[in-house]
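Morning run. Coffee first, then this:
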Amino acid sequence: MYIIVVGGGKVGFYLTKTLLAEGYEVLLIERDPSKVDYFNEQLGGVALRGDGAESSVLDAAGAGRADVVIAVTGEDEDNLVVCQMAKLAFKVEKTIARVNNPKNEPIFKMLGIDVTVSHTAHIMNIIEQAIPETPYIHLLNLQHPDLAIVDLKVGQDSPVNGVTMGDIDLPDDCIIAAVLRGPDLIIPADSTELRSGDDVIAITHTDQEDALRRLLI
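And here it is:
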C-alpha cells in the first residue's frame, strides 16, 4: 500500500515514522526545505519538498498510484484542497484530513472527504467517557451527516426500566444495536428486557438524540 502524507509538523512526522515502521510505502510532502532535509536524514529519503495542494507536486509524488492521501497540515483549507485534488485529479480511493476546527467537519464531509480527524472532538469524547456519572455519550458521527452512534445508560427512573424491547416505542428511525450489561454483550430481541444500569448502544438521527435520551435516561 502506498500512502502520501501532506504536512510535516509533529503529526505528519510521527505518522510517517509509524507507517514506515508498519511496513507501508510512504512519502511525506512538506514545504519547508530544512524540514525536508531533516526528515530525509531521519527517515531515509521519504520526504518531498513542495506544496501538497498543487497538482504538479502530487503528480511528482506519484499520487496517481497512491492508495491513501492523508492531509495533516495546520490549515484546514490546505487539508481540504489536498484531499479534493487527490480525489478529483488523481482518483485516489481514500482521503483522510486533519480538521483543526471541528466546526469545519460537516463541510469536509459534504465535499466528499472520506475520513476527518478532529483532535478537539476526540479529546471531548475522552473527557465524556472519563466521567462515570455521565449517562449519555455521543460516540461517533457516521458518514451520513444525519446519523450518529450514541451510548446511553438506562436510569433507575427511566420509563423503559423493566420493559421489553418489543414494548418500547422508540423515536422514528432509531435502532438499538446492542446492550451492555456488566461484562455481557446482548444483541437485543423483542423479548430483551432493559434494566437500570444497562448501557444501550443506539444508531439514531441526530435530531432524535434528545428524544432518545429522555426515553432511556
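The radius of gyration is 22 Å. Good start to the day.
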